[in-house]
Amino acid sequence: MPRIAIRHGWLGDPGPGDPAPAAGLTIGVEEEFLLLDPATGATLPRAAAILAADPPLPPGARLHRELRPTQVEASTGVCTSARQVREQLVGNRAALAGVARVHGAVIASCGTPVLSGPSTSDGQDGRFGDIDRIYRGVVGDYEACGCHVHVGVPDPGTAVGVMNHLRPWLPSLLALSVNSPFDRGRDTGYGSWRMVQQSRFPGAGIPPYFPDLESYQAEVGRLVACGALVDESMSFWLVRPSAAFPTVEFRVADAVSTVDEAVLQAVLSRALVRRALHDVADGAAPPEFSGQVGAAALWAAARDGIDGEGVHPLEARRVPAWQLVGELVRHVAPALDETGDRDLVAAVLERLRHEGSGARRQRKAAAAGLPALLATITHQG
Predict the structure, then answer these.
(1) C-alpha angle 188/113/363, rounded to 5°?
(2) Quick one: average pLDDT of 334-339?
(3) CA triplet 367, 370, 374: central angle to 5 degrees?
(4) DSSP letter for each residue of 107-176
(5) DSSP bridge pairs for 343
(6) Which of 97, 125, 205, 333 is 20 to 30 A away from residue 219, measured at CA?
(7) From which residue to which does any coiled coil extend (predicted)?
């Protein structure tokens, strides 16, 4: 679900040895998971029992409630290296899988459920009740899951400046993550049906350009006044300044099948922020492109991921998706070198070239039957 509230401690309280957020260095990852019946693959409302179990997690990591009782979110502690992110993600997944098993469920990391259980949208109180009341049928069956990345920045004003430089690269981050081809037992033909579902929300997608923090806050305030958002801490843009912490929050990626793909999103997002911080400091103007072309680029990424053509936001033309990924990697190559992540990125991208996107792997497994598909989306490695 797009972030809908200020959650104090989105990365958890810093664990032993965790640093305070630092500009362009610290990263944290939030993974949203579905809870499934291991026999049928349908979603199960087991979140309350799992959260009450409070399983042991890595230092600083936390579990959070999500919009539906068929979902749960695990966030890492504040990390400074890809290795630390990976260790925390592995620990979170293992802890969740263990406690879910006790309650007759398995955790699945995919953007949308293959099969949904009975509707669970009625009778919620508080903020989630407000979400159901305002968005109605749009969220009545909404069980979408994402992989969100936070990267430290000095202050909210800088976050807005950084966000302006990130806009054209969001479709490529989505293309690398597409992992939601199915919807209630049918193949949608899309790599990320989750992104199609998100497009139904007001103002969803690539954020507009904002000249400063005040203009950003004013636009959010207008959307609240129009009744399109619950309050100022809510938005449906795919990248934004965090409402609670000095970070930029990426909310573009589907929940990905493997830990390595989540780490890839983390290090590429950090590299984009580091590059943007340099550009902001140098006074470089953010790239300009048509909002409609940006929407087309996001749609193409949702449809075909890395396994087809994408749309070049700045050149307004169709190109192979892997060409866009190559441009992204070249754009952030110096930042990847600074953090020692270039080889990791190259290795994961090579694997994706060979095996295909998460959506492609799901379709291949589905052809072999439901057990093979469930094994693919519940694999914890």
Answers:
(1) 50
(2) 96
(3) 110
(4) EE-SSS-SB--S---SS--HHHHHHHHHHTHHHHT----EEEEEEE-S-HHHHHHHHHHHGGGHHHHHHH
(5) none
(6) 125
(7) none
**Residues contacting 245, CB < 8 A, separation 6+:** 10, 11, 21, 150
Instruction: Report how far residue 222's alpha carbon sits from residue 224's, in angstroms, rounded to the nearest whole number.
Output: 5
Tell me the Ramachandran region of residue 229: left when phi exceeds 0, alpha when psi lies from -120 to 50, beta otherwise.
beta
- 355's CB contacts (< 8 A; 6+ apart) are 361
For residue 51, count CB atoms less than 10 angstroms from its CB and return exposed for 0-12, middle for 13-18, buried for 19 or more.
middle
Query: Residue 80 and residue 339: Cα distance in Å, rounded?
Result: 9
| Distance separating alpha carbons of residues 14 and 11, to the nearest angstrom | 8
43, β-bridge pairs: 36
pLDDT number for residue 244: 75
Mean pLDDT for 79-106 is 96
Amino acid at 48: A
Tell me which amino acid residue 93 is.
Answer: R
* Tokens linked to 179: 């992992």
Q: Indicate the domain borders of the chain.
A: 27-354
Owner of token pair 């950003």: 216
The SS3 call for residue 47 is helix
Sequence-distant (≥ 6) Cβ neighbours of residue 253 within 8 angstroms: 146, 147, 148, 149, 173, 174, 176, 177, 265
CATH of 27-354, one of 3.10.290.10, 3.30.590.20, 3.40.50.300, 1.10.357.10: 3.30.590.20
Lowest model confidence (mean pLDDT) among 191-200, 235-244, 268-277: 235-244
Q: What DSSP character marks residue 42?
A: B
| Residues whose CB is less than 8 angstroms from the CB of residue 31 and which lie 6 or more positions away in sequence, other chains included | 73, 74, 75, 89, 92, 93, 109, 145, 147, 255, 262
Q: Residue 72 and residue 36: Cα distance in Å, rounded? A: 11
Measured between alpha carbons, how far is 211 from 52 in angstroms, rounded to an integer?
Answer: 44
Collapsing DSSP to helix, strand or coil, 191 comes out as coil
Task: Please tell me the pTM assigned to this model.
Answer: 0.91
| Cβ neighbours for 43, distance < 8 A, ≥ 6 positions apart | 34, 35, 36, 37, 68, 70, 113, 115, 116, 117, 143
pLDDT at position 134 over 70: no
